[in-house]
Here is the input.
Amino acid sequence: MITVALTSLGFCSLALAGSAFSALALYAASPHCRWPRLRRAGRLGRQISLVAAVAALWLWIANLGIATGVVVMLCSWMLVAILLPMLAAWHRPAQVMR
Here is the structure.
């Protein structure tokens, strides 16, 4: 049987990727999303975001404990959630049809 042992760095990188993916999926489902291609792909964004957020939260808690895991999850999730609209505004994609 093959077993995979994750180190603390492995848990943190998977949890950070899950947090970032959750925030990206939620941004894709938002009507304020400025990237048309991402908006088309984000029809199921809220459900996917919820699943990714729960998985990332579980990974953070498994590695750091309950209180620290919740705080780090919320901080990393909000950092990505704030950076996505900033990046979209800075990138200035093609005009969105109104």
